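cron nightly-structures :: item 1 of 1
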Amino acid sequence: MGFTANGILYSVGGDGSDGQLLWNIPDADGNLTGWKTEPASDLPAELGLADAATIVSGSHAYLVGGTTNGTPTQGVARTSLAPPQPFFQVGLFYVTI
């Protein structure tokens, strides 16, 4: 399934055991520079969805219905469009990087 949000193109889903969320920001000429993924945004490994309806609300995308391994599914899967950033604390005063 594909959708746009905030000028970013997204492709999410798959069929079988892959449920990746891929994203791409077109350059000024509208060219795609390469699809990127963030594992924290992927669907659960056991939830490969195809042909689902996609609804975007805030920082989440919801996938409704669809098929998994060719079998119709019920329910809703959610993925984050803005996963939390990792951070590191170092030193005596816990400086956050």
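cron nightly-structures :: done
The CA atoms of residues 34 and 86 lie 23 Å apart.
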